[in-house]
Amino acid sequence: MESIPEKISKNEQKRRAKQQEKQQRLSQQPPRPVAQNSQSTREPEILPHQHHENRLKLFQNIRSTPGHKLYPSDFESNLTNLAAFKTQWESLETGEENTSIEVSVRGRIIFIRSAGERLRFYIIQNGEEQIQIVSQAKEGADMESYLQQHEHLGRGDIIGIVGHPGRTAPRGRPVGELSIFASQIILLAPSLWMIPKDTGFTDAEQRHRNRALDLIVNRKTRDMFRTRHQMNLYITNFLSDRGYIGVETPILSQVAGGAAAKPFTTFHNDLKRNLFLRIATELPLKQLVVGGLDRVFEIGRVFRNEDIDLTHNHEFSSCEFYQADANYNDMMALTEEMISGLVKKVTGSYVTEFTTQAGEVHEVNWATPWKRIEMIPALEEATGVRFPDSDQLHTEDTREFLIKLLEKHGVTCSPPQTNARLLDKLVGEFIESVCINPTFIMHHPKMMSPLSKSHPLYLGLTERAEAFVCKREICNLFTELNDPYEQRERFLEQANQRDQGDDEAQLIDEDFCRALEYGLPPTGGCGFGLDRILMFLTNHYSIKEVLAYPMMRDEGGEAKFKQEQSQMAQLEGEIADLSIKQEATSG
Predict the structure, then answer these.
(1) In 29-117, which ranges are continuous DSSP H helix?
(2) 66: cis peptide before it, omega within 30°?
(3) What is the pTM assigned to this prediction?
């Protein structure tokens, strides 16, 4: 039978070529003299794919042996806290062992050393703690059984150890190392792949594609996920302590609303209709407030069919919360209190550092109160021109004014050049770009804010604010629009923007408008992306670093995509031909 050739990525080809060059250089060097009293052994240097092939064959052979004991399920560990174990037995003297205590522990091998045939040392990791395992064959011991326990163990393997606490008595050192002296070592799960050592596993592209290995090797990655848990717990407790209740709303809906974003579409087979993955949780949460749940929040995943870049992923975690009898000022006060408290809780300070991709280091002060900037006056000051009256910002004359202003300052805006998109470009250029410390940009025009309430004093503007840190948006909040008549008018304006080519404009949601007709009390709401906050808490400029499994582009790029599409079309054609033949045969 003809073997199937191995598919090798370009990155893997480069790694193999470098490793082969290294081996050739080493083979041309004279062998190093080995000290006669050396008691340590080193693993032979081989290519990662060769290591995998060797281990795969080894354990396939073992699995084919009747009665094999690979991947056992009956190992019970009574030691799950190595830090506490070390504290308990720290007082052991050098050379002292306590054989009256039996411990069993699971861990991953990160280092192996042997001193002859009868003595082996392992360093295992359990959680974030490491401990030495000493396994020695005593005089008269069954050497065959002893060697069988150790002959197949390698770095990365997960093993179970049964033994007792003790401290070694090394030659040349006054104090031995606290260890577990093993009476039995059981292979629980072998690692078929080579675990990086020495230089570690630092290539960002490979770490994102192989998160399991990244977690094994890099504590910083593991700590990041612990910080995420700490963040979610803090936010949940913060809101719960203030009377909010956590809820869950549908991920699939007939209308994708609550944000300016392009949704993912799917098809429901039984209902025979298209559905959207939610782009926000806002509209269903506000309907719960209509129903009498005065304070609600949801932490969940939302999905947006948008470009992948340093701050955007197709799915991300958001937190939205809504409170009856509140407005945008209340939401600003609550939001800055929550986020500044979160920063202090996680980092121990209100001041953090954030490093950009270009290497710029910003010192960020999260202490309250945060700065507040009014959008239109700030733009007038930055550009040196007077803007049209706020109730005329949606007109065609204003659109021409904004286009000329962008051209004057050399700022480009890709089509569609709607008033909202043009104004947003100016805000990004002149206001967001100077927001390093947390800053609220307030009073957006109605055309940019279809769900926020009109400002009672400034015609054409709304009671809305967005917070920015280091030039990046972290949250969006406003007094909720609760007039069903005006809400429909706002949705129609969004439909007009969609007709102009803006596929991120919101759709009309009649169910939401109907809910408003029952009466939504004066309500304030806020939403923010948890991943963006986590990027600041852990000082990462790329969102991929704070996601467990970020979306990655195919290594083969566009050519690979077209090839896969062609193969899929061919396969579908073959299936269709087969179905026709089967129908003809059955007929």
Answers:
(1) 48-63, 82-89
(2) no
(3) 0.84
